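Two folds, back to back.
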Amino acid sequence: MTRKRRIGLALILLASGISSLWGSLLGHNSPNSGGDFKGVYYDARCLLQHRDLYKEGEPLRVYKEENGELPESSHGLRQVLTLNVYLPTTFIFIAPFAMLPWGPAHLLWLLVTAVSFTLAAFLIWDIGAKYAPVIACGLICFLLANSELLYGTGNAAGMAVSLCVVAVWCFLKERFVLAGVLCLAVSLAIKPHDAGLVWLYFLLAGGVFRKRALQSLALTAVLGLAAILWVTQVAPNWMQELHADLQGASAPGGLSNPAIDSVTGRSPAMVIDLQSALSVFRDDPRIYNPVSYLVCGALLLVWLVPSFRLRFSQRRAWFALAAVVPLTMLVTYHRPYDAKLLLLTVPACAMLWAEGGRSRWVALLVNGLGIVLAGDIPLVIFVNLYQSLHLSTVELSGKIMTVLLMRPVPLILLAMAIFYLWVYVRRGGQDAGNGLDGKAA
């Protein structure tokens, strides 16, 4: 291992260690301590006790039986324990933790999350360091150091994102491929809206990568079938109940509602999809949902064409992923801890930086802003600044300032998606025009 790689590894371990320790301490001192993991933990406890985990309020009743009443300040945690918005496949992986008492289960979950997330960061550093070690290390360390919310809430995104990143490394490096198949399958099972478009790229890439994608899907289907059979025995009406829970969470004021007045709308745990920015101007799902789907659908359609037509190459794969990862965050419900998937954009930025030219500065700007603005500490600063200004959202100027201060993440994610999509399409077109590329019929 070279000196630069040793220094990079040390910095990554330091950034990850600070973030995990600080986030865990902040979460421990909060009335909503480990709220997201607590939700799935008590959902799984319901399942293990043969109680309907999708029945509204049932996990909350299990919590009260084991711990007593919730504090009045735990409004967010109360909603998490009342409405179960996870698919049955999630609970196959949560059930082993739910067999343990809360304290050891929570500690073990944080440990597994920290190890997997740090491993994912190091694997991306392994790629980026070949092109621009300082740039790659800086971006990765800032992302790691601003992941306190991930550990404070214990959200399953930490596991889903980490496993997705590990799978990408395994596939593109052609090492530990079976482990990569397993990692992608588990990531899809836990949070398909995080890993779904990444999986789609490998399906479209063809050849051995399509085989890996189909293997991952088949394994996810097997896990899903087992989970559905298990859950159906306990909760025969789980589909209707899950639908009702999702509607309740997305209703005005609900935990998953993208509007500024939702439970977490003015907090660092805000929703970051495109709907959350559009809702500031018109808080009507009949308006912001179709507009979001139209914008993201158009960008996805442009991305699909070269992904399907062009012959696979390692460099092009990283540009394709750099374009689709921010688009993943925009198209549907996500929060800042899901945006840790931006790790997959770092190699593309490092490659452009190594090539020189004006594009490298744009890449560094959009990547840097994307990782900074989606970071936990900058989001806390924005929230405090917004609250001190007491802006009104009645006038257009107030709405614009609200979007800039409270919804900066969707804006920069959109800029990232457009920039890397331009790079991806432009380079594919140049290669095809020179007769250097194009998939075989």
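---
second:
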Amino acid sequence: MTWFKVDDGLWGHPKWLATPASARGLWVTAGSWSACNLTDGVIPRHVLPTLGGKPKDAATLVEVGLWIERDGGGWLFHEWNQLGRQPTKEAVMAEREASADRQKRAREKAAEKKSQEESRRESRRDAGVTHAVSHAGSHGPPDPTRPVLKNKPLQDLVCRRLFGDAQKPTTDDEKRELWLIWAETAGHSVDLETELGSWLMHNGATDLKNPGAALLGWLRTAAKRTAIPAVPGCDQCIRGWVTDEFGQPSEHRCTVCRPHLRSVEAL
């Protein structure tokens, strides 16, 4: 959009005071038309009826010095761009091009950011777990400094639930890959073995479409639970989460222990 600018002192200018109302209306309307069509103040003769103007109004504007009659026909606004009063076609086109370039860069930056976020989320889904198992061993010999789950039978049960007997990881290096993914998802404050056991008890007989994603979701929820400060006195929940039949925190939020509610709802 291009603006036709009108000086706030126009109302008291001698030329304006000497101009009839009909000619004033033509001047303003023609200025808007010129700004819209980027004619740099040129008003072709054939456009006059479209603007609701009459030849006598145009003649009046020429007489008072607001318009200049052109040799080739039509009229020209007096000092259209002098002192930058009105934008020129060249300036408007340059600004539009710069604006389009800014918008393009902003869209590209937003698309790149979205792609990076989606890639990070994807890497934490079940595909990421499967990738780690299928490519374990390709990173060289096992690193003795990398942790291994102490309760190997429990880990074997979790892996069997995730991948079945045919594809479950068997080497220590494969198990280290899985452990690192689980530990990174749960965070340092979560008792990983306890959460793995709870997940098995809750989902041992459940038909899960994507067990790997379900496990990672469980561990993320566990990380949220541990982030809520404990409030003594509530026997209905653990850190704001109702306990299940096994005495472990469930996925249901506590509605009894009121001090927890704000912290829980903020998750």
